[in-house]
Amino acid sequence: DTLTDSFTNAIKKIRFHDDEKALTKALDELKKSLLKADVNHKVVKDLVFKVQIETKKRGIGKDQFLAALRETLYELLEVGGNRGFIFASKPPTVILMTGLQGSGKTTTTGKLANYLKNKQKKVLVVAADLQRLAAVEQLRQITAKIDVELYEDESTKNPVEVVTAALKKANSGIYDVVLIDTAGRLAIDDELMGELEAVKKAANPSEIFYVADSLTGQDAVKTAATFKEKIGIDGVILSKYDGDSKGGVALGLSSQVQVPLRFIGSGEKMEDLEVFLPDRVVNRLMGFGDIEGLAEKTSSVIDEKQAKKLTSKIKKGQFNFNDFLEQMESMKKMGSMKSLIGMIPGMGNMSKALKDFDLENSGELKNIKAMVSSMTMKERENPDLLNNSRKERIARGCGLTQVEINRMIKQFKNAGKMAKKLSSKGGMKDLQAMMG
Ligand code: GDP
Ligand code: MG
To answer: What sequence ranges are listed for the domain SRP54-type proteins GTP-binding (predicted)?
Structure first.
C-alpha cells in the first residue's frame, strides 16, 4: 500500500456534504494507513488531529479535507529549513557521510558526487572506510563510472591519516567539494562513534550527513537521533526510498529528529538522487505528479534547453507523441523509471504497477516505440487526429492489438490533460475534483 493509495482511499470516504460521520471515517482511514505506512504513532496522532481541526475550519467536504491534509503534510515536512546541498562560503565544502553499515553511504556518496559534477563542481571523494572488506574497491568502481576523482590510500588502516592527507590535497585550492565516505557498523557502538569523532576532528566538516535506510522504518529515525546526539548531524539523506519502502519514514523524520531531510535516494543508480522538497513529496504522496521534479531530473540527462521546451509544452498541453517518444528515450539513461513515472502528472497511480519496470529491455517501451513508428508525422504531432480507422491501421502496422493501442493512447492523453490542469490557475482544485 503506498501512501498515495491510502490517502486516495481515505478521501473517497467523504461524500461532499457536512457529514461529521464521514469525516471521522476518513480520519480513521487516514490514521490506519499512515500507521501501516510506518509513520510514527505520535506523528500520526498529531497529524490526524490537525487535519480534523483544519477541515472543520474550512467546512467539512472533500476539497476541504484535501486542502487541510496538504497543508498539514507540508508543515510536517517543512521542519529544519535547509534542503539540498549547501556550499560553504569558502571552498572546499567538506561533507562527512555517516551512517550504519549497508545504509547506502557509499552509493549515496557516489550519487552526490555525480549530482555535484552535473553542476560543474570539482569533487574529490575520499575513501575513509577502511573497515569493510572491498569498501575502497567499491568506491573506486563508482567514482570511475561517474568520472570523479578519488583519494585513496590502502597502505593504512587509519581513516584519520587518509582524511588528513586528502584535505591537504583538496586545500590546494582547485576543489569545490570534498565528500568523505566513512565506515559504518551493523549497530551503533562506541568503537564506531570513537572513529567518527576522530575523523570529524581531522576533517572539520562543513556539514555531516546521515544516510538513513528507509527500509528500516522507525529504526532509521532512532539511529539518526542517536547520531545527532553523539556526533551531531546537519542533514539526513533517506536512501532506498524506492522498492518496498513503506515511505512513512520520510513523513515524520525531520520533525522527529529535528534535522532537515536534504536528499532522497530512490534507486541503485547514480542518477537516483533527488533534492528533498516538501511540495514535491506532498504532491507525490497525494498522487498529483510533479512537473518541476520531472523537468529537473530530465535536464540532468537531456540538455536544459530541451527540458525547458518540454516543460513549457507540457504546461500548454501541446505535448505530442514525438515528445513522448523522445522522453522515453531519455528516461532510459535515467535509472529508476518508477520515480519518474510518479512525477508525470496523472501517472502517479501507475507507479505501483511499474514497480519493476526495466526500461532497457522493457516490452512497454518497445510497444510505445512500435506504436509511434506506425503513426504518420501528422498523427504524431496531433494526437487528436487518431480516429478509429487510423488506430486500426496503426495497430496492424505495429502488430499490436487495438485494445493495447487504445490503452496507450488513453494514458498519453490523460497525462496531457492532467498536466494542463495542474499548470493552469486553480488547477489543483480541478484535479482534486477529478481524483474522486
Ligand atoms: P554502505 O555500507 O552504507 O556504504 O552502503 P552501500 O552504499 O554499500 O549500499 C548498500 C546496498 O544498498 C547496495 O547494494 C546499494 O546498491 C543499495 N542502495 C543504496 N542506496 C539505494 C537506494 O536508494 N535504492 C536502492 N534500491 N538500493 C540502494
Ligand atoms: Mg560503504
So the answer is: 260-273
Q: Which ligand 1 atom lies nearest to the CA of residue 239?
A: 23
Cβ–Cβ < 8 Å for 253, 303: no
- Tell how far the Cα of 143 is from the centroid of ligand 1, in angstroms: 15
206 located within any domain: yes
- Residues 314, 289 contacting (CB under 8 angstroms): no
Q: Report how far ligand 1's centroid is from the alpha carbon of 48 (Å).
A: 33
Instruction: Provide the 8-state DSSP code for 336.
Output: -
Ligand nearest to the CA of 131: 2
In the chain, the amino acid numbered 328 is: M
Co-location of 18 and 146 in the same domain: no
The CATH number covering residue 66 comes to 1.20.120.140
Q: How many DSSP H helices and E strands does the chain contain? A: 21, 8
Distance between CA 180 and CA 166 in Å, rounded? 9
In angstroms, what CA-CA distances link 246 with 5, 123, 180, 249?
Answer: 12, 33, 29, 8
Give the number of the atom of ligand 1 that is nearest the alpha carbon of residue 129. Answer: 4
Last residue of a domain, one of 78, 105, 137: 78
Judge if 190 and 98 occupy the same domain: yes
pLDDT digits (tens, 9 = 90+) for 192-201: 889 999 999 9
Pairing of strands 123-128, 149-151: parallel
For residue 328, the model assigns a pLDDT of 61
- The atom of ligand 1 lying closest to the CA of 266 is 23
CATH number of the domain enclosing 381: 1.10.260.30
What is the residue whose three cell numbers read 510514527? Answer: 40
Q: Which residues pair with 180 in a beta bridge?
A: 96, 126
- Do 41 and 102 fall within a single domain? no
- Binding-site residues for GTP, in ranges, read 99-106, 181-185, 239-242
Looking at residue 66, its pLDDT comes to 76
Q: What's the whole-model pTM score? A: 0.68
Alpha carbon 424 to its chain centroid, in Å, reads: 24
Provide residues with CB under 6 Å of ligand 1: 99, 101-107, 184, 239-240, 242-243, 265-268, 272
Q: Using one digit for the tens of pLDDT, what is the confidence trace for 401-432? A: 888 898 888 877 765 665 555 445 444 444 34
Containing structural domain, residue 305:
287-435
Do 235 and 141 belong to one domain? yes
CB distance 390 to 413 below 8 Å: no
Q: How many domains does the chain have?
A: 3
Question: Do 299 and 411 sit in the same domain of this protein?
Answer: yes
